[in-house]
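Table 4 source record.
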Amino acid sequence: MTANTYFWQGGRQIPIEAADSEITLHAPTVEAARAVAAEAGVPLEDVTQVGPELIRATTEGPSSRSVTQLRQSGAVVHRVYRTPGEPDSEYLITDTFFIQFKPETPAAAIDQFIQDEHLEIVENLGHNTLLLRVTTATGRNPIKTANLAATRSDVEYAEPNLVRPLQRFAYIPADEWFAKQWHLHAPQDDTDLVARACIAAPDAWEITRGSRDIVIAVADDAFDLTHPDFQGPNKIAGRLNAFTSNGSVFFTEDVMPKPGDYHGTPCAGVALAEINGQGTVGVAPECAFLAVRFPLSFDDAAMIKLFERISREADVVSCSWGVGPADAPLSRAFSEKLTALAQSGGRRGKGLVICVAAGNNNCPVKDLNNTRTYEYIDGWGTRRRYSGRIDRWIAAHPHVITISGCTSRKTRSAYSSWGKEICVCAPTDNWHDLTFAVLPGRGVVTTDNEGFGARTDFTPGSRYTERFGGTSSATPTVAGVCGLILSRNPNLTAKQVKEILQQTADQDLKIESDTPVNEPGDFVNGFSLWYGYGKVNAFKAVKAAIIDSEVLVDQTLSAALDIPDVGSPVTSAIDVSQQGTIREIRIGVDITHTYIGDLRIDLIAPDGSSVTLHDHQGGSTDNIRKIYTSSEVPALRALIGKAVRGTWKLRVVDTWRMDIGRLNSWRLMAKATAS
């Protein structure tokens, strides 16, 4: 092959040919691209912005002639490339490429190479790895330059930096809070629902609802941070709005939705919605939320910077997007960065837990020997066919957690992608990936945008929807479970979190699918190509994340004490014999009363210190049946570090006339470090 009939990506040589009339032009806007082309005398059609400062267009004549004219006028322009025989494949190149020199290469030799080839250093990625930009003086496009560089004896690899427009893996259906969230809690059969098709979240919450010390990032299009389900002390750990300018990645805090941003808010709600007495509940309601907004058109160099920033601020990241059927191997630079972050990144330095959607195209995540033809709907709604090699970018990386979908009937979600790369599956909806026909099964109830313009919501007129789904929903479900695991045991590595998910997953799934699948889904030696190691089970996973030195206290007392009207306080006591230092504490209270605004409730610790749980809130509301946590009552955090052993007291007093009640029971739940 000549140097411009292939390129290297992910360590593989991929054959390519130039498209007849399609080009990419580096310009900030469509209008700027049209102006540059008009000045060069090149008429453009179908002009579309496919990335930051990257415009895709069709020329009237041959693309080779148009490229020559545009370059003569000073424009940075490249032809679009495809795999021979695969008209629906498409590679959009930038003017940069990655190169890694062998460890023993002298710095002087690297500098001389850059000087001889008239290249510019965009960024030094460390370990002799550079992102370089070709210039007019280079005289070759980035593919040919990288290919020639790859032939050098001192070069480990050289690969172009590609742009891959990403798809959001969610279905937008044609069509309405905890009781409806079957994916969290499904105790019995119902219409289109099989008992235990859920992830057993309430059982996991008995151990932990999450911790603000664990940060889950959701990287997506935008987030309505004014939504009631994202409110709470220290809920929002950060706001990152990523964008590129002149090849560099910048961050602001503007993560709110714009017209067309419909996807991030539902994803975030699945993972993180607060328990606040209204709306929906996320899998890890007490974990903190890092909202990451980015355009689904970053090149690999920008993705590296994005993941590096996320890794500094989060423990877990949820990625509900990727590429459709394509030969799209990760560049080695991005692949190696993901490996490094998964092994030693994250806020704790124990590895960033990276959760990735398998996709909604009913095809393999990776099959380098594929000879079958797969039909799919692309991001613009066009039905396409693909029959070449399949290597689906980030979802195929060995160190991420790749997630497929199962239904409320414990069957395979008809659209869900599959393969050896699947780690676990999670409950989501069911529909046909080509016709979008709704199939038997329930949708996922979560948060929704409202009032942000066209194409920003799933259910108009509501801040909630019960029509979310796709592997877009399955992915933040698993990310939430990972947040619970780390809340229970923050000493775990990302690899250990992945192993716990796999070891505790449920395999009582039906080997049934509403669409044909080209590979069987049976569990063989504990693994299924459809479901991975099985359906994630939050309770089993959290239970398995035990700390050897951890002491769990969970005691309930049936007090049965009448609360006198404007009388003396009533006090109930629980004796704890276990020894340890408190790391987390929660108090459950069951009181019957016809006017809870009359009441004050205090918790008194063994050392005599007290925390007020309820101070005359609620007015004429009847009864108190709730669990008080440190996220709702920050004063409970003052008990962290105190001894758990001793007599704990709950004191209740009615300070206003006319209404009376009864303290039925109360419950003390604590996690402590053995002493």
